[in-house]
Write a structure and sequence with these properties.
By secondary structure, this protein is an alpha/beta fold. It has a single domain (11-145), classed as Rossmann fold (3-Layer(aba) Sandwich), CATH 3.40.50.2300. 36% of the residues lie in helices and 22% in strands. The chain has 5 helices and 6 strands. A 6-stranded mixed sheet has the order 1-3-2-4-5-6, sandwiched between helices. Helix 1 packs across helix 5 and helix 2 packs parallel to helix 3 (91-101). The radius of gyration is 14 Å and the shape is globular. The relative contact order is 0.19.
């Protein structure tokens, strides 16, 4: 495969710049999930959650570990929402790569396996949200990660 960074569509959200975000700098979020519908739902959640608190937000996407690595090489991110079962490599490897390459980036892991929680958190994820958890759990994790 080509190792150039993915050229995924990016969403720019303009908010009113109140709360914890500085409107002077674009906040960058990477959604890493192999399920197109899940990425769309995550994008919508981010739009709804951060519309009022973000000065400017840019959302990028990756559908597998290969695309995730390309995105991490091409840009810096404030937040990565990582599917713990992302195809292409082991979850711990993905998380370690994010933490080593972008140490100030917050990572929220998502999984359909509740037993993955302790593994993800002990490996350096800031938050863990189960796929069957209410949407408010992810909203809370995103707001905490973004300092709002």
């Amino acid at each position: 495969q080509d190792d150039s960074p993915l050229h995924q569509p990016e969403t720019h959200l303009l908010g009113v710049g109140r709360s914890g975000f500085s409107s002077a700098r674009v906040k960058r979020v990477l959604l890493a999930d192999d399920d197109d519908r899940a990425r769309s739902a995550l994008r919508l959640l981010l739009q709804e959650t951060l519309r009022e608190v973000a000065g400017s937000l840019r959302v990028s996407e990756a559908a597998d570990a290969w695309e995730l690595w390309g995105q991490l090489r091409g840009s810096s991110f404030d937040l990565v929402i990582l599917d713990w079962e992302l195809p292409g490599t082991q979850s711990l490897t993905c998380l370690r790569l994010i933490r080593e390459s972008q140490p100030t980036c917050h990572v929220i892991t998502i999984s359909s396996r509740p037993e993955a929680r302790s593994e993800a958190l002990s490996a350096g994820a800031h938050s863990f949200v189960g796929r069957n958890d209410p949407a408010q759990a992810l909203t809370k994790a995103v707001l905490e990660a973004m300092g709002t």
